[in-house]
Structures
1.
Amino acid sequence: MGSRQEAAQESHIQRQTLDDPELRAALKAFNELLSTSMGPHGRIQSIQNGVGGPITMTTSSSRLLSAMSFSRPCLRLIVSSVQGHLRNHHDGGVLAGSLCLHLVLNAVEVESVGRKCVREVYEVLLKLIDEYLTSDDCAVSVTVDTSKVKVMLSFVRSILASKPVCGLRLASANYLAQLVLKAFLNSVPDVSSSFLTDRVFNLQFDKKDITSSEVMEGLLLEWPEKSAALGAQELPVIQESSKNVRVALVTVSMSGDAEEFLTNQMEAQPQVVQSAADLVLKKMLAFCDWLHEKRVGILLCQKVIHPKVKSYLRQKGIVFVERLGIQPVAYIQDLTGSRPISSVIVPPPESALGQLNSVTHRVVHNKGFLHLQKSNSYVCTLLLCGAVDEQLAELKSVVHSALKGLYSTLQRPVALCGGGCWQIHLASYVRRVVLEREDELCSQLRVTRAQLAAATNAFASSFESTALSLLSPSLRAWVDPQHCHMWHVPEGVDVAAETTAFSCACGMVTDADIDTSTLQPLLGRENSVWRDGFLKRDDFVKTGCLGMKESVNPDWLVLDTLDCVVAAVQTAAMTANTVLSITQYIHDVN
């Protein structure tokens, strides 16, 4: 943490409400930051603290929010909710934050309706959306399973292409999508099993082209024991009679500091300290003898190994890796079946040892590695390459999101129509349902029709605004009344006279499916075509889960993760209601 530039002054407590122009301006500024970070056309944000320090360039919500600090309680509440969503889903943070801010700001602008009434309407509409998105009648859901490779690739590519910092062109996006899908398919077990990780270990290499990335079976662990300049070398490893290599995974320090049993600091004479150190070293050497007796071929230590212990291990012919860190430990467990050994003073049970089929020395991008492999294992290593650190950090984040999205399709093989289509569709769905159940909802919520319409419009317009954030500046947004998808049309193009084949933003609806003369411009909240009666009761068509028509090109689909979207919408709406329920925000401006 940085030190204060000025001495602390007397506390000055400030009270604000959502009607305060200063707080509303802060909410709008934060919303502008998130909205302009959304999608493949988002602006790259450059973040640096006020006293210097590293610069973070990103459009990823996890990196964006962690690089910023917030003093206003209202903003900190929203950021905390978004970060909680990211901890569970690793994606959709920009959507959750932007949608939440739109819901709050739209509610504040509805002066004719009380905040309590708006919150109650929001709760009802959120429940409607949840039920619709997870139902079989949802018309913006697309079946995604491993039998449809092109659709799966489009799903992955949609996630990868959403971050402009990654700098992915079409060829590199396709290549990386294939790698991610390959890593995912390699990690999926044939039968249901229990694992500690997602089974895809990630290694990053900077100053390399993205197309140098690759997937390898097993684990690659950095190993400077042998010089990479000499190339891959033969590695004699102790084996069992079955030709397997036994593995010991140690998670306690083997540096001789006796951290196992000396948890407190004590003062003692130098000879006493030396005597204790010698005793610990003797115990560790005895542990090495036990490893040799059990024919252990490789010792993997999370922390540091004492130099004398290293020398003794070499004499015994045991390969060792130290300073692993915490990240690879769970992957090693999944690969080898070993259990962490938390004591080198007391010999562990033999069942704690794991097994490998082979341990080889490899040189990858001028670095030495141990390549650990085991047959019928579902653990693999994704070697991710990037030209600069910022690109590599963004690639790591987005690849993790893509893998998380793929794993979610195993539970429910469904994705949502992306590119803004599901937002526009949900906005029209909400307005249609409210129109059909107007009397019932007015009675249930004890509001007038005008109040219900105003609150509903605030809710639906928030979804339209997030969809418009995905639009390139050179394009205009249009909507078809039949499927309620968003269409991106260049400025000045007459869609009715257009002869070139084109499709909606997600690619699931083409001009062969609709009459293009019925397309209407989506002008935003102030001039929304929906408020002028464009949407009628009979306009909205229930089509159910969209099938793959012949006119649809699966290579150009834009898809979003269903679970992530549902959770992001829930987070946004519930957080917005919490913000609207608080009458005063109090903080110390010192």
2.
Amino acid sequence: MKKTAFIYDDVYLTHLMPEFHPESRERLVAIMSKLRGSDVWPQLIAMSPEKASFEDIEAIHDKRYIEKVKNLGHGYLDADTYMSENTHEAALYAAGAIITAIRACKAGEIERAFCAVRPPGHHAEADRGMGFCVYNNVAIGARFAQKLGYAKVFVIDFDVHHGNGTQHSFYYDDTVFYFSTHQYPHYPGTGSASETGSGKGKGYTYNIPMNYGVGDKQMHEAYHAKLH
């Protein structure tokens, strides 16, 4: 049986949102409750995340932005993205979970991992958080993978929203391929098929905009016809 890790920590529950905010800690509470009572749980390797270093974060984000996040405390990074007292700590462990997964894969301890983290990350750009996202966890992980010796990284983004932050991180980069399926047009407004990268990164961004309400058939075609 292939070794699959599940990476989680209760620190993610300390990232508190205003009442009725859709990016609620209860999402993770529900996932953990359901998963721990399922037949799948005994098959997983439970792992705790490490805390990402500032060097790890700086591989993607500007120092001034990191200082802003670190010092903000309570408040909004933008109209949607709220920070509570423990958000910065949770965000470091969210990015750290990806690093933990990559490090364990590299060492041969696991073959894959699911990182159940928050705050999320794929909308966060180098100098700003948005769309509930503080640090770009996957982008930070991609750079860490390269630090470990993986010359090329392929990022697959599966979400109703386009990951503008991840695309932004590697748009001019030919060492990271970014592939995304998402509803379009939709928040945040990026992700058209014409966005394919620029400079050395031309051709290393592949967006597949999907219409509202598409089903399994269209998604299957997108991944099996386009991704292969």
3.
Amino acid sequence: EVALGTGEILETDALVIALSAARAASLLRETDGALADVIGAIPAASSAIVTLAYRREDVRHALDAFGFVVPAVEKRRILAATFSSVKFEGRAPEGVVLLRAFLGELPDDDLARAAQEELSELLGIGAGPLYAAVHRHPQAMPQYEVGHLGRVHAIETAATRHAGLALAGNWLHGVGIPDCVRSGEAAADDLLDKHEHGGWE
């Protein structure tokens, strides 16, 4: 059974939990406290992203890459940036560039200001943005500590106690988008395999 926030109860034969480790642990706590404890022990960091749009003519940098990463030794407020409109065609109208800046924990106004200042200096931007938005992702970036593979093995072994349960997410076998896609596909394949072999009725 799955209890929704609306109070509705869904009865399912199978369930894929594809959430952050903290949220997955919270959902599983009443069903399997030991499993929830192991999942919940995976640490995660928050991320803040500022999305900015500029007129292409106001950006002196060639934008001839997908973005950049800033090493800690540089002691900058910005951690990385992606050139979204270069990386993915159609993300911005003709003559406009869309940039995403990744920063640490700051209030929203400070985040937007810091992103603009850092990108202006690093990319030679000579005007203010046409658009700016702050997006926060609390506890969204799992931190793979020493022993992570052993923890994942323990989680996957414990999850087999629940025939109709599969787990997916960036806290298992990789944090990138392709890793997450593979994780979701593996969870679906696992449930289909269990169903075909009488894992549940």
